[in-house]
Structure formats: structure tokens, C-alpha cells
TrEMBL record:
Residues 26-173 form the N-acetyltransferase domain. This is AIR synthase. GO terms for biological process: thiamine biosynthetic process. GO terms for molecular function: acyltransferase activity, transferring groups other than amino-acyl groups; thiamine-phosphate kinase activity. SUPFAM superfamilies: Acyl-CoA N-acyltransferases (Nat), PurM C-terminal domain-like, PurM N-terminal domain-like. The lineage of its organism: Bacteria, Bacillati, Actinomycetota, Actinomycetes, Micrococcales. PANTHER family: THIAMINE-MONOPHOSPHATE KINASE. It comes from Subtercola boreus.
């Protein structure tokens, strides 16, 4: 990543008497090997020789960590004018917690070119582009005001090389933005004046199921769920859209503790050929899950659209709002597969490589385990879904980042905000969850339940990785015990079920 920092156009003017050298353009970018060495020379000149913070050198373990990134400000003639490094704060596994350090600017370039702020801003942008969720730095008192102007938040003080430093954090709102984009509009759309809730006692699922994945059909043991696929996705990848329309609806039925009995579809397409492509994905999915298409509606000569309604049966639905403060949060997800081509970081495809028998076994996990509360991980992402469960239950949630089951090919930020194919969030009394012990499910780190049978690849990984709390919103707990708030309050605004 490069950041061009140009100055005003026009021929350079001779400096005024007593003024410093004429400002020069520079580029902030990721350093190559030679530039890393030049950056280390600047560090030695500044921190060892000028400030006397270290003896001999200031090199440490981060300089040996292959994951460390060095950004430098380079003049047009190749001179390195300054630099900064950033790296994961945890050894071995990158959890999305990074630190920035060793910010340095050459003495001859200080105070006139804005190099320090440019490097800090570039480091923040680089960290967010890498999917960092927690980015912190310790800075000397002289630099704290600059960081504050750039938007950093003060956490406290610490000591580095015998000198007091300020502990600062760059606010990263990726999870909040993802949650808001997916669900924050529901309150205004569904209940601007109390009309929907007051229209009928069973509106929006009734008092026990507001905001749930499905709704009980009054007077029956039937659960109904309905989801639409983004029109852009239908247009771009119609077969995949057809498959996903079944996947997401049957996940909803499963999260309600029900067994699917059939689906109905409604699709629009520009012509018959395009409609057949959508229907081929629908047919392949319904055959895999073993559910019939009971009926539907098709219209040609219109923009691409697709929605599916799924029906299931259970005499005792599992509520999304059944969690209580003190309940343990369990995440169960199929970690097989990989990012769907063209949807890196947003759609994890764990389902298209599974057999029909495996897909049906995954769908039976929640109906068999019967947790106190369950929701399938939707487009709001893992954290947003937990936020919806907490909201419907009238509580909040804390998640231990290190204990969340996650595929090795996904960064933490992507995994917490993506659609994971098959993923369930459940809540039970601590130690009472049956999800990690279900057949074919492997107990992930942080869970003591038994693993899948030897010789059989696991259907999913599961672990207790959080707690429902009395404090609203969702917070992440990091290995050092620090809590960061990632969802401030409610997700949908629909309130407690």
C-alpha cells in the first residue's frame, strides 16, 4: 500500500533566511529489504544516540517476526525520511490484535513535512485493510498530542526503557458498521409508530419470537422462514444464488429447532434461459437437503430477484431470545471449504462440497441438542448475530476472541463479519451445551467435550467461547483480559422478544 503525499504545485521557492530546507514530496509505502535497513539506521540514530533510550541498538523480537510490516516515507531520490512498524501482538496466531511502534522521523525532516502524521495514518489504514480489530501503540509524551489530533484514544500510561509512555488505541468500527448495514434499518422500517407490533398480537412472530429466524404459524406445529437473495448476487451468479436461497432458509429452520418439510420460491428473471440457471441451483440444493419445492411464482422480463420461504415442523421451537445473563455462548460452525470465488472475506462456502447426508446432519444439530437459545449466523456476521440474540433476550454478550472456532484460511475480522455457510450461535447454562458433543462435531479450543469419531472428518467445530451479561451490546475479550466494545447497543432495534 502506498500513500502519495504531494505538496502544492509550482516551482520550489528559495527558503527564507533562517528557514529550514524546502519541503519535498514523499511517498509512504511498505518497505523493501533495503528500506527496512535504512529505517533501522534512523531508529538507532534517534532512540539510541539522540535520546539514549537503549544501549547499542533498539532491535527486539518484532524485528525478527516475519509478520511485522514496516512502512516508510521515501523521498523521490530514494532517501528514507521516516518509518513505523506494525505487527500482531500475539505469538503464532494472529487474532486481529496489532500494535504500532518505533515511529521515527529523520532529524532533518522533522516539523515541516508532516511525515509523522502521514506515517501514523498510513499505519491505521494498513491495519484496517489487514482486518485488524484492535490496534494500539505506546508513544512518548511529546507525540501524544499529534496522535490525539488524528483520533487516537488514550488508555493510560506505561513505562518503556524507563520512560513514561502513553497507551493509545485507534478506534476501529468494522464490526459495528457491518452490523448496522445488515440490520439497523429494521426498527425504522417495521415499527416507526408502533403500528406493526400493535396491528395483531402475533405480528412479527408474536411476543416470544420477535426478531427470530422463523415464526410459528398460529394453530399449528409449522415454522415458516423467508429470505431473499441480493439482486446483484442473483444477476452475477444465478446458480449459486439458487443454492444459497435454500441454504439460508434451511439454516433458519434448523435454528428454530425444526425439521424442514418443503420450500416455496418466488423468482424474477430477464428471460427463460436465466430463470433456468436460478432454478438449477434451487433444484440441486433441494435434492441435496432432501426437501421438495412445494410451489412458487416465476415472472420473466423483469430484473433478477429471488426469495424463498421454507417450512418446517416442531412442537417446541427453540427461541432466539431464550438466553439469560450468565448463560454460556457456544459457536458451532462448519470450517471446511473456503472463500467463495468472487466473495473473498464475505461468503465462506462450506456447503457446496458436502454430501446431502452431511448437510442434513448439520441441519439436525440444533433440533437434537435443544439449546436454551439459538440463531444461525446471518449476513450480520457472527458478532452481529450474537448481538441479535442478546437483544432479543434482553442481555448483552462477551466473547473470548481466542476461543472462537475459525478456519485457518480466514482472518479474524473477516470471520466475525462474514456469512459462514453453516454456523450456529447457541446459549445454555455453563457446561450444559450439547453442541460440542454432537455426533460429527469436533470440540474446538476452549471446549472440553469429546471430538468426532476417529477416521471421520468433523462436520463442524464447536466451543463455548463467551458469556451473556447484564451489560447491553457485545464486547470482545482479548488474551490480556482487555475488553473492547464492538457493538454498542442493540442490533435491530426491535428489542426484547
Amino acid at each position: 500500500m502506498s500513500v502519495d503525499v504531494p505538496f502544492l504545485t509550482g516551482a520550489p521557492r528559495a527558503p527564507l533566511a533562517g528557514a529550514g530546507p524546502v519541503p519535498v514530496p514523499y511517498l509512504v509505502h511498505e518497505a523493501d529489504a533495503a528500506e527496512v535497513q535504512a529505517y533501522r539506521v534512523l531508529r538507532r540514530e534517534t532512540f539510541v544516540e539522540e535520546q539514549g533510550l537503549f544501549e547499542g541498538h533498539d532491535l527486539d523480537d518484532l524485528d525478527l517476526d516475519a509478520r511485522t510490516v514496516v512502512l516508510v516515507a521515501r523521498a523521490l531520490d530514494g532517501t528514507v525520511l521516516g518509518g513505523v512498524r506494525l505487527a500482531p501482538a500475539t505469538p503464532d496466531t494472529d487474532l486481529g490484535w496489532w500494535t504500532g511502534s518505533r515511529l521515527v522521523v529523520a532529524r532533518s525532516a522533522r516539523g515541516q513535512l508532516g511525515i509523522g502524521p502521514a506515517l501514523v495514518q498510513a499505519a491505521c489504514a494498513h491495519a484496517e485493510a489487514r482486518g485488524v480489530l484492535r490496534f494500539e501503540a505506546t508513544v512518548q509524551p511529546a507525540a501524544e498530542r499529534m496522535f490525539a489530533r488524528l483520533g487516537w484514544e488514550r488508555l493510560g500510561e506505561t513505562t518503556v526503557a524507563g520512560v513514561t509512555h502513553a497507551r493509545l488505541r485507534w478506534p476501529i468500527g468494522r464490526i459495528q458498521r457491518a452490523s448496522d448495514a445488515a440490520k439497523a434499518h429494521l426498527e425504522a422500517l417495521l415499527d416507526p409508530f408502533g403500528g406493526w407490533v400493535n396491528a395483531h398480537p402475533l405480528s412479527l412472530g408474536g411476543p416470544d419470537y420477535v426478531g427470530d429466524d422463523g415464526a410459528p404459524v398460529p394453530g399449528t406445529d409449522v415454522i415458516a422462514a423467508c429470505d431473499a437473495i441480493l439482486p446483484a448476487m442473483v444477476e452475477r451468479d444465478p446458480e449459486w444464488a439458487g443454492w444459497c436461497a435454500i441454504l439460508v432458509n434451511l439454516n433458519d429452520i434448523s435454528a428454530m429447532g425444526a425439521t424442514p418439510v418443503g420450500v416455496l420460491d418466488s423468482l424474477g428473471a430477464r428471460d427463460a434461459s436465466f430463470a433456468r440457471r436460478i432454478l438449477s441451483g434451487l433444484r440441486e440444493a433441494t435434492e441435496a437437503w432432501g426437501v421438495p419445492v412445494l410451489g412458487g411464482h416465476t415472472q420473466l422480463g423483469v430484473p433478477a430477484s429471488l426469495s424463498v420461504t421454507a417450512l418446517g415442523r416442531t412442537d417446541s421451537p427453540v427461541r432466539g431470545g431464550g438466553a439469560r445473563a450468565g448463560h454460556a455462548v457456544t459457536v458451532t460452525a462448519d470450517l471446511s471449504g473456503g472463500w467463495r470465488r468472487g466473495y473473498d472475506g464475505s461468503q465462506w462456502d462450506s456447503s457446496s462440497g458436502r454430501s446431502g447426508q452431511e448437510l442434513r446432519a448439520l441441519g439436525a444439530l440444533v433440533p437434537t441438542a435443544r439449546p436454551a437459545a439459538a440463531k444461525d449466523i446471518s449476513m450480520a456476521g457472527l458478532v452481529g448475530t450474537i448481538g441479535m440474540m442478546a437483544e432479543a433476550s434482553g442481555v448483552g454478550a462477551e466473547l473470548s476472541v481466542a476461543d472462537i472456532p475459525r478456519p485457518g484460511a480466514s482472518g479474524m475480522a473477516d470471520w466475525l463479519t462474514c456469512f459462514p455457510g453453516f454456523g450456529m450461535v447457541t446459549a445454555d447454562a455453563p457446561g450444559a451445551s450439547r453442541m460440542p458433543g454432537m455426533p460429527g462435531v469436533v470440540a474446538a479450543a476452549g471446549s472440553s467435550s469429546r471430538t468426532a469419531a476417529a477416521g471421520h472428518p468433523p462436520l463442524a467445530a464447536s466451543a463455548e467461547c463467551g458469556t451473556m451479561t447484564h451489560q447491553r451490546g457485545v464486547r470482545l475479550r482479548w488474551p490480556d483480559g482487555e475488553l473492547t466494545t464492538v457493538v454498542e447497543s442493540t442490533v435491530t432495534g426491535l428489542g426484547r422478544a
